Amino acid sequence: MKLYPYVKRLIDIVFAVLLLVIASPIMLFAVFAIKMESRGPALFKQNRPGKNSRIFTVLKFRTMATEMEKDGRALSDMERMTRVGNVLRKTSIDELPQLINILRGEMSFIGPRPLLVKYLDYYTPEQSRRHEVMPGISGWAQVNGRNSISWKEKFKLDVWYVEHQSLSLDIKILLLTIYNVLKSKDINSSSDNTMQPFTGDVESGL
Q: Where are the domains of the chain?
């Protein structure tokens, strides 16, 4: 039986509690800024598959306006992005509520990012291996391109992490994550702020 997953869980709990205390003023200010700029809840909640594909509710600060249409026209994600939301994404402050997911035992600091539930039907058996470990706030794919790489590359990196996870690798990913956030590196795939949907096409590796 591998010991590291248990050690990792203990580390996650300790640091999640510490960060919640330290980051609480930032989180309160984020709630205030979101509510002041646009109508709707401060938190964005969405079902995502976690370890062993178990569904849980991921928490983030809302970065988009709740309005879906304007003058009868559907708005794109880029058009719905608020000014506050843009800052929250660039600084990754929008991810802070996931500290609660970590305390609940639904996520870890490091692991494959939890994606949409509908993507479960599109994965190959190899790609599905990303669900053998706890999903993370940051991961090997995020520090090696994030939204600037294809889905096929992203899933390969996720599976590589599953096969090679260790304390030293997690520390490396953590340090690279901090570096990328400070440099605002690899946040966008193009001029848009969101990754194109995974549809299980040839480019995605299916």
A: 4-183
